[in-house]
Specification:
Elements lengths: L6 E2 L1 E5 L9 E5 H12 L6 H20 L12 E2 L16 H10 L3 E4 L10 E2 L9 E2 H9 L4 H9 L3 E4 L4 E2 L17 H16 L15 H13 L10 H14 L30 H16 L14 H13 L10 H17 L23 H14 L16 H14 L9 H16 L15
Helix pairs in contact: 1-3, 2-3, 2-4, 2-5, 6-8, 9-11, 12-14
């Protein structure tokens, strides 16, 4: 949830009450807005009234998508067609021409409160048979006839501290759950998101311990907060985050911040988890670029439409072309610049490959597991790392040999630092994508020869 808002390419509508058995319809977002606007308001109303209502309809729908209002409760849809819950949607209804033209102009504009980022919960009612504290649809007609602009009409109902976001980005409406169980070997943006959400929830539920450092590393304090959350909300107390726990945390976070209420606390830019130190683009040279190239090289080995790239740490034309090809495959703007969305989609594509590719210790080299390995972690990926380091130490005695116990202790950390020093990497004793690639590549060269790439296995290609 803690991400920059966007316009979903599609929205799934449940044709009934939330708990009622009914058909789900997935429709492109502009067509959905046209249908709702044609069902909720009259095409003969003044244009400023129509525009104000369309802004409200768009913002309401985006709030449901952004907060995962229904999906966080376990439903498989984004919104319902019932006005007592959401907005009126009538399947296969006729669309008014003037409303269609206005929606084509306005579907990627939405209302938000100043200082917050999430689409505002622009609740509304017809203002005659039903009244509410939000916008009055018939009331907008009177205001438009008095000469109010669409923005002034919205201010009249939602306050002077609103603003309209123009031309928001359109993206694929993908689930927020990263697709894997988050545990003590996990790191990155999903972990930061959990840490931020749990700390806010703990203000309302003080039994949940605060996480002192929003580091993006799934440490003992994060485990403790997750376990207590699971205890309070009657989930299995695993201390790890599967899909059920992920969406329950999202639902409670939405509730305590009142994100789907007129008096919402709101999400501010400072609430968003930082993913990395800015965009990656041509001319840059650092370990983030090296990690990016590793992910792209792996993806290119399985997706024929993604251009291959060398892992050098320098962002040159080859890397830019590979990024553009990936963006084209994933329906992103082909800028050649790795922004937040591109990085997220690259990582998800890589993680999907890691989960789907079979592995044999005897004749293959394992891909980076997708989670940071550091002192204190115990898992099978650490065991593989230790095996690789020990094999390398036979040729390079300055790198200590370590027992393959699966526990990342001080000896393993020392071996990692020694390797990082030899490879010219940051000597932090932490194994991310860049360090893993260097270790796996050298191990592959020593054991199988220089022709074998650690990120490619024959017979697994995706067009």
């Amino acid at each position: 949830m803690l991400q920059t808002p966007f316009i979903p390419d599609t929205i799934t509508v449940h044709l009934g009450n939330p708990d009622q058995y009914a058909e789900n319809v997935t429709i492109d977002f502009p067509s959905y807005i046209k249908n709702v606007a044609s069902s909720e308001i009259y095409p003969t109303w003044p244009e400023n009234s129509l525009r104000a209502n369309i802004y409200a309809i768009v913002s309401f729908a985006l709030n449901r998508v952004y907060t995962q209002w229904y999906r966080s409760k376990g439903y498989d849809f984004d919104i319902t067609s019932v006005t007592s819950y959401d907005q009126k949607f009538i399947q296969q209804r006729d669309i008014y021409d003037n409303i269609s033209l206005l929606v084509d102009e306005l579907f990627n504009d939405y209302v938000r409160k100043e200082g917050t980022i999430q689409p505002y919960f622009t609740s509304f009612c017809n203002g005659t048979t039903v009244t509410c504290s939000g916008l009055s649809q018939w009331g907008t007609v009177d205001l438009a006839n008095e000469g109010y602009t669409p923005y002034e009409i919205l201010q009249n109902y939602y306050g002077n501290d609103i603003e309209i976001v123009k031309d928001a980005e359109v993206r694929i409406n993908a689930p927020s759950y990263p697709g894997y169980v988050i545990n003590d070997s996990s790191a990155g943006t999903p972990v930061k998101t959990l840490q931020i959400e749990l700390n806010r929830i703990s203000t309302a539920y003080p039994l949940i311990p605060k996480i002192p450092s929003i580091s993006g590393i799934y440490d003992a304090s994060t485990n403790a907060a997750v376990a207590k959350f699971q205890e309070i909300f009657n989930l299995p107390q695993t201390g790890t985050v599967n899909e059920a726990t992920w969406y329950k945390i999202a639902y409670i976070f939405t509730s305590v911040k009142r994100l789907s209420e007129l008096d919402s606390e709101g999400i501010r830019i400072s609430d968003l988890p930082s993913q990395y130190e800015g965009d990656l683009r041509i001319g840059m040279q650092n370990q983030n670029v090296r990690a990016l190239q590793y992910y792209l090289a792996t993806i290119a080995a399985y997706y024929v439409r993604v251009s291959p790239v060398s892992i050098t740490g320098y962002y040159g034309e080859e890397t830019e072309n590979s990024v553009r090809s990936f963006q084209d495959v994933y329906g992103l703007p082909a800028t050649g610049i790795v922004d937040e969305q591109t990085w997220s989609d690259i990582y998800r594509a890589y993680a999907g490959i890691v989960e789907s590719v079979p592995f044999s210790d005897e004749d293959t080299v394992r891909l980076y597991p997708g989670t940071v390995l550091r002192e204190g972690v115990t898992n099978d990926s650490v065991r593989v790392l230790q095996e690789y380091l020990s094999y390398i130490s036979k040729t390079y005695p300055d790198i200590p040999s370590v027992n393959a116990t699966g526990y990342f202790g001080p000896v393993t950390r020392s071996a990692v630092i020694a390797f990082q020093k030899r490879a010219g990497l940051a000597q932090n004793g932490v194994v991310g994508a860049a360090t893993w690639n260097e270790i796996a590549s050298l191990y592959s060269d020593l054991k199988f020869g220089a022709q074998k790439q650690p990120f490619q296995f024959p017979g697994y290609t995706i067009s």
